[in-house]
Amino acid sequence: MGTPPPAAGGEIHRILFHGRGGSLFGIHIVNVLLTLVTLGVYYFWGKTRVRAYLWGQTEIAGDRLAYHGSGRELFIGFLKAMAFFAFPLFLLSLLRDFTTWELLKWLSFVLSYVIVSVFFPLAIVGARRYRLSRTSWRGIRLSFRGSAREFVKLFIVNTILVSITLGLWYPLFDVRRHAFLTSESWFGNRKFGFDGASSGLFGSFLLTVILTPFTLGLCWFWYIAKKRRYFWDHTTFGAARFRYTATGGAVLRLMLGNLIILIFTLGLGWPWAQVRSARFVARYLTVVGPLDLESIQQDARAASATGEGLAGLLDAGGLDLG
Amino acid sequence: MRTDWDGHYLDGRTPVRRPARVRLTRAGLEISPEGGATAFWPYAEIRQTQGWHAGQAVRLEHGPDPAEAVVIADPAFLADLREIAQAPGLRFHDPRRRRRRVLYTGVAAGAIIAICAVLYLWGIPAAARIVAERVPVSWEEELGRAAVESLVKPEKQCREPAGQRALDALVATLVAPAPPSPYTFRVQVVDSKVVNAFAAPGGYMVVLRGLLDEARRPEEVAGVLAHEIEHVLQRHSTKALVQHVSTGLLITALTGDVTGAMAYGLESARVLGQLSYSRAAEAEADTKGMGLLVAAGLDPAGMIDFFEALERKERDSSGLLKYLSSHPGTADRVTRLRRLAAAAPAARRPALEPAEWTALRAICKGAGGAP
């Protein structure tokens, strides 16, 4: 895989993030208070307020993103996730502890395993579907239209391949997963595309593994940067293409800085760490080429918040543009 | 006061942005997009979705999703809207209130610091006490047995019978004067040169051979055992479990969503937060352990001597460091214990007879530790 061909036309569309740590702290601290007072229930409404702020401060080609989700949706999604995954798993673990019948024990073990292995892919797809469907730019909604069944299949098959190959398959899994999630994403009636090759990260991955003992593992920051560049540089939108230019050193500085902020504030500095991350994406990510917006139409799809609740359960929430 | 404002209009069907004139009237907005017909939006049907923060344009939406919208960059628009609009129950943001919002934020921050401090200083210790009191002893025993089994390999266990008898006798001497407890105490010596001892829940205690080598007389071992027995009686491990979970919840509530590498930072913060709890537990085990020694008629100076010997060797980079890392502040604890011991009556008996002490020190010299 060489470098992707330059997009036609020289237009460069910048992404700007206008958010400030202080403003986000103001939102966050009130959320914390209400979450403590309501014994955690307000968490979902707080999360929605934070997202509305982050989205609303992100500007692409002169217009801000808008977030249309609600706390109620997230809360219901969380309850559904508990009912369909956490509660059955809890019942099965009780069954294992209290039955003396070996067959039943074995059966409950297998069933728990199945539930857990479909849980992760469903959570990833669900969260993406919900978040994109609640995001708009210039009044046009995004959407994710991939089939959850296909993704579960991809996820399980590749997980098995990773374990058979002792991890060597991982970079291929990573690209395939990302390709599926990207190429099934839409803005209005226009699809995003991904033209990376499955094996595109394999060389870098192998080199990173080999260098790990000699660099005390620091080379993984360069791998993370390489991976993000590969993912974005192969993402297209019509005739336009994304371009991401962050280096390993920049990723290292970002992550180390955030770590230090969080440790020394006992976590209270989270808003500043979040703003640093968003600014980082905005600094290094651009869209190159004509957007050709005249040919795009609104085409919204419904989405439920169950997957979103699952992601919350796994602590995988947040603005994950990177 | 201005009635006409420049903005742009999004029709909700295409991503094309059209310049528009927005006119404020008493009952609603008149929206005139460039090259389109003028539309009237009554105030009651308009939702403000952006423009609460400095530097953010005002965004007003109208109609069912996907809605049409106008975006007005100048935040002064909202102030004039409030002046002109006559409709009751307006839900638009008032920029003049931002100053008051800063005040509320300050108050909220203060309240949170107060709530967290109260929870940390009183709430979590109280919860740990209440939960620990209600955990059945049989659960603790199960947990303790599993912990000792997974930590101590069978071939490392020292089982010389005479030594074990001496050790059990010493534990019995220490426990005898204490109020009756539901625990059965079991001590296991492990063949390791590390100077350490620990208590698992449910009465299981482990002494490493290095500690027996380091001790110069049985009263020093008695001092360490009394300390470990109090860890069991005060249910410190069970409380530590509850504290671990609760501090985790508190930190999660404070930080919202944290992904990837940030989670490691939080874990460190949690460990920092828990250190003071573990120091309090050590101090309690010291004080009450000394009470056990005195009640059993043993010389409490043995405990102090042992800790002092540890303190003298603190700078040595030997196995001692391991002992100290979980028991911080040796100098302070020696001073405190010395004050307590000064008030104690003279010892009535030795902790072990010389023959027993010799047997205990030889507990690992048996038939290779095999049962």
What does this structure look like?
The complex is a heterodimer of chains A (322) and B (371). Chain A is α+β, with helices and mostly antiparallel strands and 322 residues long. Chain A has one domain. In chain A, 58% of the residues lie in helices and 13% in strands. Chain A is built from eleven helices and ten strands. A ten-stranded antiparallel beta barrel of chain A has the order 1-2-3-4-5-6-7-8-9-10, surrounded by five helices. In chain A, a hairpin with a 2-residue loop joins strand 4 and strand 5. Chain A is globular, with a radius of gyration of 21 Å. The two termini of chain A are 22 Å apart. The C terminus of chain A is likely disordered. Chain B contains twelve helices and eleven strands. Chain B starts with a strand and ends in a 10-residue tail after the last helix.
Keywords:
heterodimer, A: 322 residues, alpha+beta, 10-stranded antiparallel barrel, 11 helices, 58% helix, B: 371 residues, PH-domain like, 2 domains, 7-stranded antiparallel beta sheet, 4-stranded mixed beta sheet, 52% helix, 15% strand, disordered C terminus
